[in-house]
Each structure stands twice: as structure tokens, then as C-alpha cells.
Amino acid sequence: MRSDLLLEHLECLVSRHERSLRMTVVKRQAAAQSGVSSEVEVLKALKSLFEHHKALDEKVRERLRVALERNSSLEEELSTTKEELQNLKQGLPVTNVPAIEDKPKENGQLETSDQLNNSHHKALPAKPRLTNGGVDGENVESAARIADLQQALEQQTGEISTWQRRVAEMQNRVGELEENLSKAQKELLKAQDMNAKLQRDLRENVAQKEDQEERIATLEKRYLNAQRESTSLHDLNEKLEQELQHKEAQIKLHEERIAAIQEKLELAEQKLAQFSKLPEMEEQLKQRMEALTQAQERHGSAEDRIQRLEANLDEKNAELVRLNQRLKMNEDHNSRLSATVDKLLSESNDRLQDHLKERMHALQVKPH
């Protein structure tokens, strides 16, 4: 019954160990190395259990040895009693009963030969003293001795059968304990195998966790790099948009300047068209000079008027030369301005095309 309780306790410990391992795999990863795990607890419990089984087995073996010794001593006593009984039946003189060895009691203690002799003498009745002596007294004494020996023989036979039965029970008990011990050892091996398997699974889980943490760290780095690249591209895009707006404003300003220059050019062309009528005016002036000459001749004061007209004519000619120079300068300025505007437009267009190409290339290279 005690072995059954011990086996139930062992099964309870093993099942509790298995559940605790399965439930605390993740917690045990962060546990300190100095902490005592449930495997050590189970192994200690199994060790104490096996020590208890060993002590119990030794105790049972000791009791079995004592029982066997008592059985052998009782068998020797029985054989001696049988010999005495046989001698009494044959009329031989009765030999003294040999000293009985110390025999163990049922609880394992020893009973001394003096106590057995005292009990044996108490069991025997007192010898009657015969006055007429002789053969009748010896026959009565022999009959009483035979009856006592038969009674002691029956008692010892009963004790021998009892001890044999107890020895058989002890042997059965030893067999059961050995069987329970073998079962417990098998359970221990299973628990150790399960412990090794769980430790292997734990190491695999730790390795998988470390691998996943490394992958997560790599992905976080890639995400941060992509985020920084996206931020830099966004800043570059905003910068390019600002530059584009600035260039558009410059182009608009240049267009306004070109429109103003074109207006000035149209005005100059109008003035030039007006100045193209100068030959006719010269002819008219000549005619007027002739008329003035005639009039001077006629009036005598026409010379002064001619000098004034000549001065006016010189002024007009000088103004015409200045207008021609300004017209030429305006044409040169317009040509240079047109060339500058075309150059600026082409450079701005080239830069915009290069920026758009770089941006498209960066967007294509950017990891998804």
C-alpha cells in the first residue's frame, strides 16, 4: 500500500513537472542562472523517493533474513525434538535439550535462550516423586515428557508454518517492491527523456527567438533607412519645387522684360518710320530755303532766317544720328536679351529633366 502511495506521488510529481515545463518555457528564458528549476525539484524528489525505496527494501530484506534465521533455528529445534521423541519412543535415555539460539521475535527483536528455557520449564508440569520408584516413575515421566515434547513440536510446527507464510509474504512483498522500483525507474527515465526533450525544445525556441529578433532588428534598420531616404527625397522634392517656382518667376520676369523691350522696339520702329520721311522734309526744306533765298533777296533779312533753319537742320540731323544709334543699340540689346532668355530656358529645362530623371531612378530603386 505504501509503494502504491509512493508511485502515485511520483506520477503526480512527474505530471506537475511536465505541466510546469510547458507553461513556463517563456518565463524560464529570462530566469537567472542561480534559480532552482522544476527539473531539479523533480530530480531531488525522485532521488529521495528512490532512497526511501532503497531503505524500505533493505529493511524488508533484513526482516526476511531474520525470519529465515528464525526458521532455520526452529527447524533445527524441531529436528532435535524429533530425535528426542524418537529416542524416548525407543527407550533410550533422554538427552538434554540443546541450547536454543537466540531467535528473533516477529518485530525483529531477539528472544534469548534463557527466556525460552524458562517458558519451556513453565510449560512442563512438576515431576511427581514416587516412593515405590523404579520403572513406573520413569514411564510416567517419559509419557509426560513425550506429551510436552509433542505439544512443543506442534507449537513449533505452527510457528514454522507461520514464519514460512510470513517469509512467502515477505518475498511477495519484496517482488512487488522490486517491480514498483523498476516501474519508478522507468518513470524516472521517461521523465529524464521528457526533460531532455523539453530542454532541446527550449534551446530551439531560444535560437528561433534570437533569429527572429535579428530579423526584426534588420527590418527595423531597413525601415529606418527607407524612412530617412523618403525624408531626404521629400526634402529634395520640396527644394526642387521651390527652385522650379523661382525659375518660373524668373522666366515670367524675363518675359515681362522682353514684352517691355518689344514695346520699346515698336516705338523705335515707329520713330524710325517717321524718320524715313526726312528726305521729303529735306526737299521741302530746300524748297523753303530757295523760297527764303528768294525772299531774302527780296527782303534783305532772309539770311538770318536761313542760318536759323540750317541750325535747326543740323540739330535734326544730329537727332537722327542719335536715333539711328539708339535703334542699333536696341536691336543689339534685343538680340542679346533673346539669346540670354533662350539660354536660361534651355538650362532650366535641362536641369528639370535631369532632376526628374534622378527622381524617377530613385523611386524605382527605392525598396517597396
From TrEMBL:
Residues 109-118 have a biased composition (Polar residues). This is Liprin-alpha CC2 domain-containing protein. It comes from Dendroctonus ponderosae (Mountain pine beetle). Residues 87-134 are annotated as: Disordered. The keyword Cytoplasm does not apply. Gene3D superfamilies: 1.10.287.1490. GO terms for cellular component: presynaptic active zone. Keywords: Coiled coil, Repeat. Residues 146-333 form a coiled coil. Residues 143-366 form the Liprin-alpha CC2 domain. GO terms for biological process: synapse organization.
